[in-house]
Structure formats: C-alpha cells, structure tokens
Design goal:
Strand content: 25-35%
Structural class: alpha+beta
Order of helices and strands: HHHHEEEEHEEHEHEEE
Length: 266
C-alpha cells in the first residue's frame, strides 16, 4: 500500500475553490478589530467543513474586496492562522487549508462550546432559550463576577441540542452594567461569546472550570430526556475578559451518553 505524508496529501488535494458566499462585508463592522473578525469567519469556514483540507484560499486582494477591508487586514488574519497551523503557504499554489485546526484552543472558545462525539469529532450544537431574566445578583454571583454597586445581572437558561439529541442545559449569568443594549429574548444571538466579542469587544481570555459528576435531578431528566438514576457531568465556569475581569458565570449540566467534553491546555 502506498503511503502519503500529510503535506503530500494537502498538495494532492489542493485546488478546490474556496466558497465565500456566506462571508459578510465588514466595512461598517464595529467592536472587535477587523483582522480578528476576518480570522474568525475564515476559521469558522474551516472548522465546520465548508473549506476542507486542501482548499486554496482566494487571493488576498479578492478577500479584501469581499470583506470590504484592506489587504493589510487580510494579510494579518492569514498570517495569524498560518502561525497556528490552520493554513500554510505553498509556492505556486497560494494559501491552503492544512486540516490541522486547533479545535480546543482557548482563542476559539467564544465560537464553539467543546462538545465532541464519541469518535472525538467536534459537534455543532443548536441552542434553545428556556428562560431570560434580569434582576439583582445574589451574593455568590456578585462575588464571582466581582460586581460593585451595580448588581444587575442578566440570567439565561438554555438547552443545547445536537442532531435531535438533548445534550446539555446551562445557566449563564452576565453583568448588565458591561452590556449596554443587550438584546431581548427574541433577538438573543445563538453564539453568545461571538456576540460579546463582536458587539462589545469582550474576548474570553481565560476560563476557570470545575468539573464534577452528579446524579441527575428532576429537571435534568426532563430536559435531557434521561431515566433516573442517571449521572450527569457538571461544569461550573467563570470566563474572564482580556483585563482579567469576569464576564460570564456559567453552570452546565450534560449527559455523556453520546457526547464528551474535551478541554485541551496549550
């Protein structure tokens, strides 16, 4: 049997044209630096399989025109992704997808919660909002979020579903004072961490997690369609922004019958 190295396989696959139909024009984009926004869209196309291994990216000029940004912004995004191993530069071919996307890297925490199937493949979950409240933080929330005089918080209860399977439900608490014009329930974006980055410039720079196993309670059994007695994985988490200030307090409860949670430290 003839064997090929990864680089040879990329070379053999190279040539498929990158589809940019879902990419926006960022001329009026506000919030996060434009190169980070471009980088996010490119990485999303790769990790979700739209741009598979061997895909040749459009030229920098073409990308710049499509996104409505400068060539320098595009170059900075591509350089960052190349340094992370997501892309590689090939003479006479151009910039090519390597297939080595760092799925578990913290810098992409805002984009994908780290649920994987039993084969280790990243899965994309769909969220359903179960409850939305505004109110005063309790003592535990105020302490963990380091709230001052303004103790108003936004509380979300969401259910995550993967291919029709109820995988996880979660409570998230956010400081209202830092999130002016936070959308109402009907307008709440599905990708919350992406929204925080894009609209408020708040990047998750660190996460402190506590993982434990507990017996499913009545609510777990109802929402996750479990039969008691049944174990669930519990993840308590505090996310910090670039200035080491807490921005999200979260409590996740998940069934591990079909999925696992992978956290890779780099």
């Amino acid at each position: 049997m003839e064997k090929h190295t990864d680089q040879e396989q990329i070379s053999a696959d190279a040539g498929s044209k990158a589809d940019m139909s879902d990419f926006p024009n960022l001329r009026d984009e506000e919030g996060a630096p434009l190169y980070e926004v471009v980088k996010r869209y490119i990485w999303q196309a790769i990790v979700m399989g739209k741009w598979p291994t061997g895909t040749v990216l459009p030229a920098e000029n073409e990308l710049a025109i499509h996104f409505g940004v400068s060539v320098g912004t595009i170059r900075k995004s591509l350089t960052a992704l190349t340094s992370e191993g997501v892309l590689m530069r090939r003479r006479k071919t151009g910039t090519v997808v390597t297939g080595w996307a760092p799925l578990h890297n913290l810098r992409y925490f805002f984009q994908y919660f780290r649920l994987h199937d039993k084969e280790g493949e990243l899965v994309h979950s769909k969220t359903h909002l179960l409850d939305y409240q505004r109110g005063e933080a309790n003592e535990d929330e105020a302490t963990k979020l380091q709230l001052g005089d303004n103790r108003e918080v936004i509380r979300l209860h969401r259910l995550r579903e993967v291919s029709g399977i109820k995988a996880m439900h979660e409570w998230m608490v956010l400081p209202a004072a830092r999130l002016q014009h936070f959308p109402e329930a009907s307008q709440l974006p599905e990708l919350l961490y992406q929204y925080l980055l894009k609209d408020h410039g708040l990047r998750v720079a660190a996460v402190r997690e506590t993982v434990s196993a507990q017996l499913a309670n009545e609510e777990d059994c109802q929402l996750l369609e479990l039969q008691a007695p049944h174990a669930v994985m519990v993840i308590d988490e505090i996310s910090f922004d670039q200035t080491a200030v807490p921005i999200v307090l979260a409590h996740h409860r998940a069934s591990t019958d079909y999925f696992s949670y992978i956290n890779e430290i780099r």
